[in-house]
Structures are given as structure tokens and as C-alpha cells.
Amino acid sequence: MDNLKPEWCKKFNSMYPISGSPMYMHGKIYTIRGDSDGKINQQGAMGELYIGWHELFLINKTDSDGLVPYNSSVINGAIHIGDFKYDHQDIVRKLDVAERAAQYLPEFA
Q: Which of 27, 32, 45, 106 can pair with 49 through a Cys bridge, CB separation 3.0 to 4.6 Å?
């Protein structure tokens, strides 16, 4: 959990910048971001998401997807492809997120 804190992410991003990073076949790094706004009522969300959201929002006063702070979800130099009103679990399950991500995938012949 310490590695998700904004201070740690900022330090990591400055130590390992995206510009100049060797990527396979000139690949790129993309980010997406979730913001649950406390709407964490999905199955299994009463554990780490519930605790994480309360820690981040109520104590640290920062938006999040329930686990990752809003500003820690993007990386300087990456291509940010979208913000979604989903929690940490839904951001990887929702069709509209997958469709947006698919727009950035290269087509292979």
C-alpha cells in the first residue's frame, strides 16, 4: 500500500521516466484512471476497496478508485486515454474501458 501513496509514485516516476525507456517494437505506455467517489458496492468491495477508499478520501482527502489515488494513476510521459467513474475492480471489467483501450492497440497482420 505504501507504493500507491502519491509521494512514492512521484518519486518513482522521477527516477524512472518514460521518455527514453526501451519498449518492445517502439511500444508506448498508456494509463487509465478510475474515480469511485465512494460508490463501492460491488461484490468483494467491502474489504480492501472499502478500507482503501476511506483511507484515501476521508483521511487523505484525495479521490481514488478505492485503491489507487487519482493523481497516482497517471505517469508523466505516458499517454492518458481516459478517466472513468469506476472503482478498482470495475475499471478492468467494464466494456467501455476495454473498448477505449482497444482503440490504442496496434493491429497486427
A: 45
Q: If 0-12 CB within 10 Å is exposed, 13-18 middle and 19+ buried, where does residue 94 land?
A: middle
Distance, CA of 33 to CA of 82 (rounded, Å) = 6
Map residue 69 onto helix, strand or coil.
strand
Per residue in 6-64, pLDDT tens?
788 788 888 888 888 888 888 889 999 988 776 655 555 555 566 666 666 666 677 77
Q: Which residues contact 86 (CB under 8 A, 6 or more apart)?
A: 34, 35, 36, 65, 94, 97
Q: How many CA atoms lie within 13 A of 70 on its CB side?
A: 16
pTM for this prediction: 0.69
